[in-house]
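Section 5: illustrative case.
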């Protein structure tokens, strides 16, 4: 994911909201209003890094006008140095502001009046510049430090002081001096106390990407997140020795991870360590009465509760409201299990199994039935094969609400694996694989369902059971699409139709016909209409909701191809209802997407994203697995991005990647993330996301609904690789069959790539004839670009008009047409009409350049487009456009107001210039006037003019603005 989207700062990811909160406190302090923030959290959750990032960002923005004093308390026990945290913080204080308390002995200084002395000193320091005092690890601070901080926080509100402090969350709830101190501080005005939560799954993925240097695989993210529970420090330990190509964690865990996780555990009494190790083998929350039974031969019953409380006090265990105990962090349990021998683990699993089986069979204690999954797992790990098989099936079929669909799937797959070793098993392999298929469908696990479908197809005879085989073949086609193995296959669907014709009136026949029509229409919308009509007629007579939803969706596709949009809207609305009734969420997302297509001619509209979002919410309300809703969220992200709503794009991507989204949704999300990163100037992130998408989909080109070609072209162009951008665009534009998604962008992107290469050649003093010829050939081959069949719908035509205007303007730039400014102005206006904000900002940039290069006669128009582009780019955070326009504004000496932040272009370096010409060129790039240059160099304006004329002649520049542009690009002199 994009670092910006993940809330990155110096050294942190996934903390955008928290960083913004601290930045607000510091900004308020800089404005003269004191404030304080106390950040609580578990060890390793990132408290220190968060405060450090906030301080670094504020310090960089203040440009030396901020005093940042950072210190930390240390676990020094009885040998603690008074005020250690403050002493370490004050070492960063300026040495020229008089004696520093605690470091330089001053008259009247004593421990008794230290709070007052430090308060007065800091107040004086804030008069020089705002002060941020950051104190880390308050849980180890001495009482004197706490007293000083209390005095500072309660001090005058009208001073430029921000106090930031961190502490472990466990200390805030323990019987320590800090607990009482926190209770008092919370009551003071201007104090914000917050608990820093672990990273969510997308945040963990972003952190892994940073640690590994590339986007990680989803299977690895899932395993790391399950083990680290989002703790950044533990995530970093788990990541050691891994690469982005790894799919899974190793079988063991790093030794230093065990040291970090079990540090507090080693300080427990022997019997407490033994008891917690037993609890770890238990694998889940355990009630005290059950733990007493399990530990009866090892620990006296009356000692169990005191030992558990000791472990809880040490931060090892948590006591739940229902009276059960479990580990504060899941890695503690995993590490404890690894400290036991295989025999010990197997023996204790057997004890747990015996205790739980007795409870499960009797229920004589008035409690609710014990979740059977624990019993099944303990029998399996104890090596009790028959009991493990029996209890796995019983747990999977129990309807126990505590068993998730994923756990059900896991148990059933275990039963399949154990069946061969169980004499007289009553279930057939077909029974078990059928159960696995159903569970996988409920869990949204496409890979597991495909495995089950393949097993069932291998077991069935098409001649004996043609309808069952036909249904499985169609589902297999869906699953191969969902896992990224293959796009919809008309030949497979046709074979299923032939099998289902054994019973022409069956719902399976309607289902196969509908999906044959669907697969055909992806390749040619004019095909499949008759098949869809037949499918719908049969499905209506059969009355099967599953057949109805697919038949109605296929009929909607056919209606849309014929221009019968309202009919398509009604059909897809019914298809969605049928799919939800049948709980076929694959059919539901299929119907939702075509419901949006029926109402709007293009997905690049706000209204399209709204329709998809509403469909996603309906699926969520019906309990859809995440893999299905993730696909819709990924489409939302793509739509929001197209219209410039990048914050909503990030929210939709977070929704998609909040859990494993499945391969196709993952690919779609990565492509959108790559495009956003490219548009916002985060080139490395864009390339990484694109590489991850390509890795996930070996045959991405075959997926007509994935915009690989257009995204590749855009990313390569943004990264300064125009030759590759041209190749990617042409590969998409010239591929056989129907045009891919975002085909409308392809020829415009090809023209842009040629224009970039032509302009680079000219700026480097080389001939651009080959690129001009390529542009002529491109226009001859694609005079009107590419587009899908959408009739004459006004909204879609506005998008086509905008992109065609950009196409023509880029061709003009490739040819260096002198009157191309008007083309860029028209393109900018057309993009505005079509709500293509990214393209509009880019066109404004090119229009401003073209007008300003014409000289003073076009200055007003150039200035207008420059300011318009800056305003758009600032809202989009489109850094490439912002930087180009900032530089242009500086070079052309155009005031831009608060929107633009001009930057010194730095020294211009071109070969073949005299030292005086090089010095004057630096001033030209910085946008200085003749008079300003003359005064700086103590020469006459006439001399400056003479040197600039020489520079124009040597570089072949048209005017001062063109000269500054060439210098900024580093072009060698004309003919040099």
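Designed sequence:
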């Amino acid at each position: 994911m994009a670092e910006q989207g993940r809330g990155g700062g110096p050294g942190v990811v996934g903390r955008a909201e928290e960083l913004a909160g601290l930045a607000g406190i510091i900004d308020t302090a800089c404005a003269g209003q004191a404030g304080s923030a106390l950040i609580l959290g578990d060890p390793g959750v990132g408290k220190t890094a968060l405060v450090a990032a906030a301080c670094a960002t504020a310090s960089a923005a203040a440009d030396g006008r901020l005093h940042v004093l950072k210190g930390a308390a240390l676990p020094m026990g009885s040998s603690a140095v008074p005020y250690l945290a403050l002493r370490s913080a004050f070492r960063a204080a300026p040495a020229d502001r008089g004696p520093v308390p605690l470091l330089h002995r001053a008259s009247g200084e004593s421990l008794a009046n230290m709070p007052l002395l430090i308060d007065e000193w800091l107040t004086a320091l804030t008069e020089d510049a705002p002060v941020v005092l950051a104190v880390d690890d308050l849980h180890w601070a001495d009482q004197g430090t706490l007293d000083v901080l209390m005095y500072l926080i309660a001090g005058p509100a009208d001073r430029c002081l921000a106090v930031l402090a961190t502490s472990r969350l466990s200390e805030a709830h323990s019987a320590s001096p800090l607990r009482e101190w926190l209770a008092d501080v919370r009551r003071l005005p201007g104090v914000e106390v917050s608990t820093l939560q672990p990273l969510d799954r997308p945040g963990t993925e972003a952190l892994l990407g940073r640690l590994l240097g590339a986007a990680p695989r989803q299977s690895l993210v899932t395993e790391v997140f399950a083990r680290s529970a989002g703790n950044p420090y533990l995530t970093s330990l788990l990541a050691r020795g891994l690469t982005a190509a790894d799919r899974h964690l190793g079988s063991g865990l790093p030794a230093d991870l065990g040291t970090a996780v079990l540090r507090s555990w080693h300080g427990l009494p022997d019997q407490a360590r033994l008891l917690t190790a037993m609890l770890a083998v238990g694998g889940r929350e355990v009630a005290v009465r059950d733990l007493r039974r399990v530990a009866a031969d090892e620990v006296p019953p009356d000692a169990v509760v005191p030992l558990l409380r000791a472990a809880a006090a040490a931060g090892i265990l948590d006591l739940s409201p229902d009276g059960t105990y479990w580990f504060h962090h899941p890695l503690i349990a995993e590490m404890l299990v690894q400290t036991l021998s295989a025999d010990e683990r197997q023996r204790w699993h057997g004890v747990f199994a015996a205790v739980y089986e007795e409870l499960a069979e009797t229920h004589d204690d008035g409690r609710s039935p014990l979740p059977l999954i624990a019993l099944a797992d303990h029998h399996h790990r104890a090596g009790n094969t028959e009991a493990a098989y029996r209890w796995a099936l019983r747990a999977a079929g129990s309807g126990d609400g505590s068993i998730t669909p994923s756990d059900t799937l896991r148990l059933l797959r275990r039963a399949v694996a154990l069946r061969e070793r169980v004499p007289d098993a009553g279930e057939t392999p077909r029974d078990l694989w059928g159960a696995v298929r159903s569970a996988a469908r409920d869990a949204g696990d496409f890979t597991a369902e495909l495995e089950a479908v393949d097993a069932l197809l291998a077991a069935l005879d098409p001649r004996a059971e043609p309808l069952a085989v036909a249904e499985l073949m169609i589902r297999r086609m869906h699953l191969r699409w969902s896992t990224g193995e293959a796009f919809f296959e008309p030949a497979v669907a046709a074979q299923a139709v032939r099998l289902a014709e054994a019973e022409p009136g069956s719902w399976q026949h309607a289902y196969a016909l509908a999906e044959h029509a669907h697969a055909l229409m992806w390749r040619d919308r004019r095909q499949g209409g008759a098949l869809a009509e037949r499918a719908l007629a049969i499905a209506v007579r059969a009355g099967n909701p599953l057949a109805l939803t697919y038949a109605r969706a296929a009929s909607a596709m056919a209606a849309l191809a014929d221009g019968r949009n309202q009919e398509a809207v009604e059909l897809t609305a019914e298809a969605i209802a049928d799919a939800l009734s049948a709980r076929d969420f694959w059919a539901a997302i299929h119907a939702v997407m075509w419901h949006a297509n029926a109402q709007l001619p293009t997905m690049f509209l706000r209204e399209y994203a709204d329709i998809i979002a509403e469909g996603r919410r309906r699926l969520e309300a019906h309990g859809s697995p995440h893999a299905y809703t993730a696909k819709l969220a990924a489409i939302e992200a793509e739509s929001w991005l197209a219209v410039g709503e990048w914050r909503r794009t990030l929210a939709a991507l977070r929704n998609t990647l909040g859990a494993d989204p499945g391969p196709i949704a993952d690919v779609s999300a990565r492509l959108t993330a790559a495009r956003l990163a490219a548009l916002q100037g985060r080139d490395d992130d864009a390339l990484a996301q694109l590489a991850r998408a390509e890795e996930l989909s070996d045959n991405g080109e075959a997926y007509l609904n994935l915009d690989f070609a257009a995204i590749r072209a855009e990313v390569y162009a943004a990264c300064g690789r125009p030759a590759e951008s041209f190749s990617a665009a042409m590969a998409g534009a010239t591929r056989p069959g129907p045009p891919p998604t975002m085909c409308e962008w392809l020829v415009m992107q090809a023209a842009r790539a040629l224009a970039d290469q032509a302009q680079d050649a000219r700026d480097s003093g080389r001939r651009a004839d080959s690129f001009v010829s390529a542009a002529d050939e491109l226009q001859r081959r694609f005079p009107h670009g590419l587009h899908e069949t959408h009739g004459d719908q006004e909204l879609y035509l506005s998008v086509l008009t905008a992109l065609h205007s950009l196409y023509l303007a880029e061709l003009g730039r490739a040819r260096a047409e002198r009157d191309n400014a008007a083309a860029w102005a028209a393109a900018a206006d057309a993009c505005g009409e079509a709500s293509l904000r990214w393209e509009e900002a880019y066109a404004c940039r090119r229009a401003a350049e073209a007008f300003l290069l014409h000289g003073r006669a076009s200055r007003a128009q150039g200035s207008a487009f420059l300011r318009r582009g800056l305003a758009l780019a600032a809202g989009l955070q489109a850094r490439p456009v912002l930087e180009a326009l900032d530089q242009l504004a500086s070079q052309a000496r155009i005031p831009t107001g608060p929107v633009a932040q001009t930057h010194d272009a730095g020294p211009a370096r071109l070969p073949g210039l005299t030292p005086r010409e090089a010095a004057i060129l630096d001033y030209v790039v910085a946008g200085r006037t003749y008079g300003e240059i003359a005064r700086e160099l103590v020469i006459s304006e006439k001399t400056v003019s003479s040197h600039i004329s020489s520079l124009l002649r040597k570089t072949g520049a048209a005017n001062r603005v063109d000269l500054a542009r060439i210098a900024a690009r580093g072009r060698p002199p004309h003919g040099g």
